[in-house]
Structure formats: structure tokens, C-alpha cells
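A quick aside before the break. I want you to see a complete sequence-to-structure record at least once, exactly as it would be stored in a machine-readable document. Don't worry about memorizing anything.
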Amino acid sequence: MKIRKGDTVKVITGKEKGKTGKVLSVDLKNGMLLVERVNFVKKHQKPNQKYRQGGVIEKEAPIQVSNVMYYDEKASKATRIGAKIVDGKKVRISKKSGETLMSAKA
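That is the input. The structure line, written in C-alpha cells, reads:
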């Protein structure tokens, strides 16, 4: 999977089409992403330490990785991601702008 935690992605299909957000977590096994402010669902929550009142809360639900594309802020468009060897290291590049992408770990 070419999308990583911390990347900005744009939803390209489904009810949330057109929205952009930051990737909060990645589930490699199931191919799902948790994206900030995208795909909200209502959940009935019992009272606990975190939610003392309980009740109905809204939270982000996972979205399939095939429904999103990396969003290149320099080109202001969704783009595919490629790889290139630079100085003996493999780096991710934007196909539209050709710029190297900063990894979330760096």
C-alpha cells in the first residue's frame, strides 16, 4: 500500500466524494484507512471513563484504500504515487508534479 499514516488523501468515490483529510491510521491486513473528518458514523456508546454521559456519538469509520488517492498540495490535485531511487534510497514521488513526497516518519 502506497498511502501511509500522515498523508493527505482525497476521496474519489462514494458518499464522501471530493473531501480531503489526513490519514489517521492504516490497516494493511484489510486495506482500510481511517481519514480525519471523513466517513462519520453514529455509534451508541455506553457510559465509560472516556464518555461519562454515554449516548450517541459521531466518529470516523474506516474507508477502503481503493476509494482514495494521495492529494498533492503543490499541484492541488489528487495524484498517483510512484517510487524512484535517489542517492541509494527509495523515495516516493508524485506522478503529477514529480516532487518527492515527505514521509510521515521523517
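Two observations worth writing down. Strands lie at 8-11, 20-27, 32-35, 40-45, 55-60, 63-64, 68-72, 77-79, 81-86, 89-94. Residues 8-78 form a domain with the SH3 type barrels. fold (CATH 2.30.30.30). We'll return to this after the break.
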